[in-house]
Amino acid sequence: MISFAILGCGRIGRMHARNIKAHPRAELVGVYDVVAKAADEVAAELGSRVLGSVDEALNDPKIDAVFIASSTDTHVDLITRSAKAGKAVLCEKPIDLDIARVEACWTEIGKLDPLVMIGFNRRFDPSFKALRDRIQGGELGRLEQVVITSRDPAPPPVQYVKGSGGLFRDMTIHDFDMARYLAGDIVEVQAMGGNLIDPGIKEVGDIDAAMIVMRAASGALVHINNSRRCSYGYDQRVEAFGEKGMLQAHNRRATTVEAWGAEGTQARDPVLNFFIERYFEAYMAEINHFVDCVEKHEKPLAGFPEGREALRLADAALESLNTGRSVRLDG
User: Domains in the chain and their CATH numbers?
Assistant: First the structure.
């Protein structure tokens, strides 16, 4: 049984706390949040104890692992302190908004050989994983193209956008990781973005729509398209194309029922509305993988290096957007 502390009890932390509570090989020992009410609510719901501080969690020998679900600006400090305390770490993305801080973090803790996993949950989506497994199994022959579609149902509050690091570091970072998951290392990035949806996002210096084209070291081409608004729900699709054919992973719906009648055919339920519903199985599988890694002392599928590389791609996309040029990445 792997015992956990949750650091951060907002929407995402509460969801992870519930998933840990439901896992047969995990125990939710304690929860902490700088907003005491948030921690109190999660503890009361799940029968856990409220931790008075981060140090209380890190100094508790009964706690094996910490799940960092606090704001991004706290991640590097909490990863560093947790690793030095000998805890296994599962941290929400991104590691930080500043690649220099990310590099400095690993310089400080890398020698400890810590178990650090970053929350790129989409790697654990059953359909995306099956698609990758079939690519790796040679079903497509040589992989030539990957198309990743990711569109949110509605723009986030402008106040959130101001501190998010921008679309590439906040939203597209999942897609950058998916690109590497499917196509391998990326060596060139070209990005174009615009303000098509929310004037408030433009006012704080960010974009709300983007298309990114990338080249993998293998030669495969990857296209990512993002939007902060999608009228029909949370649009999450992946297509892989190769010399022998194509694989597609489609949107998820509440049911598979179709309606046929005089007014239309193949009418279906709307796509699932947002990330917690859409990626429910992925979040559960993510926790399961982390527990396996802690128990077996194995490296996670999405470790610190994967978090660092996704941020490098986000930075390259931003540079490309600002300069109008493609950006090549060194190894």
Answer: 2-114 (3.40.50.720), 123-274+309-328 (3.30.360.10)
Q: What is the per-residue DSSP string for 166-179?
A: -HHHHTHHHHHHHH
Over the stretch 299-320, which tens digit does the pLDDT of each residue have? 999 999 999 999 999 999 999 9
Q: Which two tokens stand for residue 234?
A: 């949370």
SS (H, E, C) 40-89: HHHHHHHCCEECCCHHHHHCCCCCCEEEECCCHHHHHHHHHHHHHCCCEE
Q: What predicted TM-score, i.e. pTM, was given to this entire model?
A: 0.96
CA angle (105 as vertex; 103, 110 as ends), nearest 5: 95
Q: How far apart are CA 235 and CA 16, in angstroms?
A: 23
pLDDT digits (tens, 9 = 90+) for 27-80: 999 999 999 999 999 999 999 999 999 999 999 999 999 999 999 999 999 999
